[in-house]
Amino acid sequence: MFRRQRDQERQDRVVVIGLGRFGTSTARTLASLGYEVLGIDIDERPVTEASDFVTLAAQGDGTDEELLRSLHVEESDVGIVAQGENLAASVLATMVLKQIGVPWVISKAANKLHGDVLTRIGADRVIFPEADAGIRLGHSLAVRTINDYITLTPTAGLAKMHAPQHFIGRSLADLYNTPDLALSVLLIRRKDQLITAPSYTEQIEADDEIVVAGTDAAINRFSTIGQHPKGS
Ligand code: ATP
Fold it and tell me: What region holds the RCK C-terminal domain (predicted)?
């Protein structure tokens, strides 16, 4: 089922090795986005569960080259090694995917050393989901309206926030009118509409989501512009 002639129309194929919490959620998301997804796990239970939403779910050892070839994994556009606890299995699966010719391999690392090893043996991208989630949460705690955050430097980033109540009806010019505010509003999501590089005259509406780039201190200050002091 996973093997089809390569053609211009076909969706990208992704193999996900290890259907734990991270692998399952990645595979589910990719399938819902229209990718052809092959999920592999050494245990039966996650394979049975994933078979409801992936293109093909197979039980087996993701480090076994013969098994991967029998599933035509070499025809995948992307390989994701989503199990990170067992270092040997993660390294071997990454090596085998590169060896059989998967052009883009993303591997999950449990820590920095593990990540360094994965990079050395050829992983094209190494991810640290647990550490990244902790960093995002840490940065976002100061501003309660932030619901996502990408680190740019240790003290600056991109933040996605729900427009605070006190922003509604105000223009960006009004919000920017704060001395030394090292911050830019990059886009506003208004229901299904994306307003990229919004103009200064754009007024914030209820339920808008705003993406800003700036220092953490500026993001924090920005979120409180126009807020009435407590008790007033
Ligand atoms: P998560 O946090 O996403 O749940 P994890 O990084 O803690 O995962 P594990 O729990 O060790 O990693 O494994 C994730 C999944 O990978 C499990 O379902 C496990 O059965 C599967 N797995 C472990 N080793 C292999 C292997 N060699 N081949 C295929 N699947 C494997």
Answer: 144-228
